[in-house]
Write a structure and sequence with these properties.
alpha+beta; Phenylalanyl-tRNA Synthetase, Chain B, domain 1; Phenylalanyl-tRNA Synthetase, Chain B, domain 3; 6 domains; seven-stranded mixed beta sheet; six-stranded antiparallel beta sheet; 42 strands; about 25% helix; about 25% strand
Length: about 850
Amino acid sequence: MRVPLSWLREYVDLPATVTGRDVQAKLISAGLEVEAVEHLGADLKGPLVVGQVRTIEELEGFKKPIRFCTVDVGTANGTGEPQEIVCGARNFAVGDKVVVVLPGATLPGGFGISARKTYGRVSHGMICSGEELGMGDDGTHGIIVLPPETEVGKDAVEVLELVDDVLDIAVTANRGDCLSLRGVARETAIAYGLPLRDPALLDVPAPNAYGYPVTVDDPAGCDRFTARTVTGLSPEARSPIWLQRRLQKVGMRPISLAVDVTNYVMMELGQPLHAYDRGLVRGTIGVRRARPGEKLTTLDGVARTLDSGDLVITDERGPIGLAGVMGGANTEIADHADLENATSDVVIEAAHFDAVAIARTARRHKLSSEASRRFERGVDPRAAAAAAQRTVDLLVLLAGGTAEAGVTEVSAPSAPRTVTMAADHPDRVAGVTYGRETVVRRLQQVGCDVYGQDELTVTVPSWRPDLAEPNDLAEEVIRLEGYEELPSTLPRPRASRGLTHRQRLHRRVGRALAGAGYVEAPNYPFVSEQVFDQLGLDADDPDRRVVRLANPLNDEEPALRTSLLPGLLTALRRNDGRGAHDLALFETGLVFHPRDGGGPAARPSVERRPSAEDLAALNAALPLQPRHVAVVLSGAREQSGWWGAGRPADWADAVEAARTVAREAGAELGVRKGQYGPWHPGRCAELTITADGTERIIGHAGELHPRVLKSLGLPARTCAMELDLDALESVGDDTPRAPGISTFPVATQDVALVVDTFVPAADVEAALREGAGELLESIRLFDVYDNAEQLGEGRRSLAYALRFRAADRTLTVDEASAARDAAVALAGERTGAVLRA
């Protein structure tokens, strides 16, 4: 919500020295989110005056139309002579009043004006458009033509109200009242302790039987409908400058007088209105739910198929508007440029619609409007009659119309809402003693009527539908007294409470990967199901079964992720596209899998803490949410420099990242050749764990498939790893243990084994480890050698360093050799390995 300070001063007598920044600080202290203050005209420097065009000479011989004009600016130029100006615009004529900027002035953006020769003539200034003055969109995109009664030579900065402070307020969903000048003025008046001139306090005629006929078939969807009629509007009437400028400052575009007035009143009072061309409405206006299949072309020119849940405005032909969202094109007010078909009689609608119904209609049709935004957040139902009266008054004043005596008001009976609250409830919520007097005073300031002593009965004002329970009232007292006045009290944790085992592992994994050179890149958990095709997953892959959101933030990403890779790969692609080519990213987070047989859980009672059974039922209704860890790499893993050549990231780095995670979990991770989805079939490792004698695959690591890289727009040779961190934790033992330091020397034996190239090195290592027995301390593959001439076609050599040590003695050479031979023998038996000569 944009709030011009000049407009705000109309309702609150702020001191002349108060600036937009001052008001911003006050409103923020009161709990409103004032995001910024825009200083309109801050870099504008005069002279900027009103001029009248005297002559226009068309200059020829140029690629575009050029006019040489003389403009009377009175005595503003110091001579009284007409000002000679070259201009390329064509939407003005001799006799028109225009805005002239004279030499020496500066326009927004630091654009200085001086006399200069152009198109063979000297131009002493410029005739201005609204865009050049920073006025926003006025719908004309041309020179500003002022009303004929504007005085020549007058300061145009004052005429056009170019200098102002505009507050930009992010209105939260519960404060629909602040989507209006009336609501913001009330908050400002409270903040400064000043009286409020409520623009809704108008003399409104009582409803009678002579108004335009209206029937409401759905009182639950529309509990109040006011209709007023104004006839005899002048087809030549235009919105005055002050009205246009106020609309521009709040971010709306002037259209025509009738439409501008309804928009103005909506911004002023917060009550959306709609004006119908009375000559185009057929019979009684009605309010009902749409019938399936009904059609309506809205004012934006889109033909829409209506849903049975849509609330619509009708006449005898059918729907003429989407209630609370947008009117229909078949009763549209004619543009003021079309004098032949100009609207002279209008019917004003001021209604109150159900917030949920309007919100669902706006989302269903993807049609958010200023009206729907207000109805969704709550509109004052008692402001409808005042808003209609205000609209009628402005149309009569500005367009010479006549207000008909008939006043239609259809309303469902309703009683004021009351909330009972202990007088000391805000004290107990805030931990501060306010006292009954302060509580009553603050509630009265927001419009409540308060009765009682120790037990208060609070009648909530109609413009605050969010005040529904004692805590809401307590919040009003606390925010108006000032959140900054609340003392800072640190909670006292109970003894022996700390991080859970899962949380500690999560932190250790993050620190370990960061220490290995990875950068954490958290991502949103939403994905498009198309990404599974891009990743090359099989049609029956379990990861294709997703949990879909009922109300996604983005229609293109309606599902929750089953893998961390889509988000990480998107982040890698984005950074690579911005020039960062050497990347190593990681993320730890939840993935989501649908639970078989799950269903919605019963809503627990708020009267007591949920029982263990209640919590179990709630958890059973949630999808499975294991925690995964993933990394992605591209570019150089080690940089080159004076120390030597660098090294590109490859599949081995992805596997090593998995081993790093496993070490932090205290788990033994199996690594073997595999093939899965996005990974290159020849450069993919399966990551496994063994629990209760059963081996289980918990992830994959390696280089991604070229087809996946092309589909996702990723750099060549991108590598990735992902594994189930919860599964790894379940078999791990990360209990801190001091390393065992032996006093006996180590015996090292190296063996080089020749095997077929298709034999995994992991299988050879596993056989060596088992065959070496309990004396083996460690084993390390330190060389891989391929040479067909020496080893034979399809053969390779794997060289291992075996370290032997006994805890109670020094090993003899025979003992170490015997353990080595036993290891080689078992490797030969299982994998066909032979010692290399």
